[in-house]
Amino acid sequence: MFFRTRFFVCTIIALTFVVPISFAEETATTPDNANLELTVDNAVQRAVQGNIGLKENAITLNAYKRASDYSWNSVSPTITAAAGYSNPNTSDTSSFYLRGSVNVGLSASLYTAIQTAKLNYEKGQLDYDSAVRTVELSVRKSYNALLYEQENNNLLERNVASAKKQYESNLAKYNSGALSQLDVLNTQVTYQNSQLSLASAKVNWENDMATFKQLLGIPLETNITLNGSLQDILKTSDITLDGITQKSSTVISLEKQIEIAETALTATRFSAYGPSVSLGWSYQPTTTSLDTSTWNDNGSLSIGVSIPLDGWLPWSTGAQSIAFRQDAIATLKLQLENAKTTVAANTQSYLRKIQQCKASISLRQTSIDLAQKTYDMTLAAYNHGTKDLMSLQTASDNLLQAKVNLMSEAYTLASAILDLENIVGVDFGTLNK
Fold it and tell me: Is the pLDDT of residue 405 over 50?
């Protein structure tokens, strides 16, 4: 139970700081003490819809989209209108004017500004998709952990029923004088111990279910029924990645960061070396008090070109900024190379783990058959008086442990498949259909 408890503790800590959940929205749609049947897909849908962190990411993504849609606005002309009146202290001649002007600035950085906004939006979309996958992975793993505990509790309940039956049978034999009191006491202890184990397992189940409800944003009073079974994972066929296009989120994110960094380098070069053009036109009709019938246009047309020269100096700010951008790109490329190696290594590791789990499952299924046969033979021998109670209890414990081990292996296999799907970037459920 330790590793499952630790898994749920880690999950709730991660949710506290990374993916907080909105409870108000779910409370409004799910009445108290309601009965709710959940498949794993339903659970994922509820978690994604109620996740505050994802809603915040969506707002950020919309901001990136707006910036991308209007990234051309630097070429939007500046239009101004003005009017003025002056009357010098030493003259009786006053003047009045109206003025309208249009100014446009053009520079090579316009292209990089548009490209940067577009890439930032694409990177925001990748980050949002990654956040959704993180939530989904947590939900699916938690769901499978609860399925494992549910299967384990069912086994423990059957063990309690078997121990109770054995105790009652021995008590009847003792009352008829066919069995010693010591044997009755031993079976009573076994029965009570099995009850304690079941009670402890149920408490763990209730605690983990409460954590799961918090993960989904479901009121704690809701009664949840899990519509699934780890038995299905036992039927998983051999898994290969042949014909599957891998889309590791880590690799794709770094590739996009390199694109953004290269665009930033181009923008820095334009800033250090590129010319900029300014266009301005103004219309300013002016008249004086001496002759108001005549208006003179004092407007003008201006064209200016500026070319920075300090970028050509290796010690200048522009030259150093270019070198800094180049270093950043080189660093990102090294990170990308390392990420590809890490993804490849982890992929092979999960594939080996999956193969090992499948082999272990086959052996554990055989172990259950052997343990069941051993228990049946020991029980028959015990009833005939040729085996003692300790042998029967050992056979019963071995059978229960064999069944628990199978379910534990199924849970490990399900988790390994989810981790593999996550790292290669395919939809969850793709590899175990």
Answer: yes
Instruction: Identify whether 103 is part of a domain.
Output: no
The answer to whether position 294 is within a domain reads: no
SS3 223: strand
Distance CA 403, CA 408 (A): 9
pLDDT at 33 over 70: no
Q: Is the residue at 42 inside a domain?
A: yes
**In which region does residue 332 sit, left (phi positive, over 0), alpha (psi from -120 to 50) or beta (all else)?**
alpha
Of 9-18, 340-349, 387-396, which range is least confident? Answer: 9-18
Task: Report the alpha-carbon distance of residue 406 to residue 155 in Å, rounded.
Answer: 11
pLDDT at 337: 94
Closest CA to 149 of 200, 223, 194, 195: 200
Query: How many CB atoms neighbour CB 44 within 10 A?
Result: 22
Which residue from 415, 413, 405, 399 is spatially nearest to 364, judged by alpha carbons?
405
Distance CA 30, CA 38 (A): 13
Residues near 80 by beta carbon (within 8 Å), at least 6 away in sequence? 99, 100, 101, 103
Q: Does residue 62 have a pLDDT over 80?
A: yes
The CA-CA-CA angle for residues 137, 141, 142, to 5°, reads: 115
Question: In whole angstroms, how large is the CA radius of gyration of the chain?
Answer: 37
Q: If you average pLDDT over residues 267-282, what whole number do you get? A: 79
Tell me, what's the pLDDT at 179? 82
- For 365, residues 6+ apart whose C-beta sits below 8 A from its C-beta are 234, 406
- In a domain? residue 157: yes
Helix axes of 249-273 and 109-175: crossing angle, nearest 10 degrees: 160
- Domain of residue 156 covers 1-69+111-228
Give the CATH number of the domain where residue 37 resides.
1.20.1600.10
Residue of 416, 431, 406 lying closest to 148 (CA atoms): 406
Over the stretch 19-31, which tens digit does the pLDDT of each residue have? 443 433 444 445 5
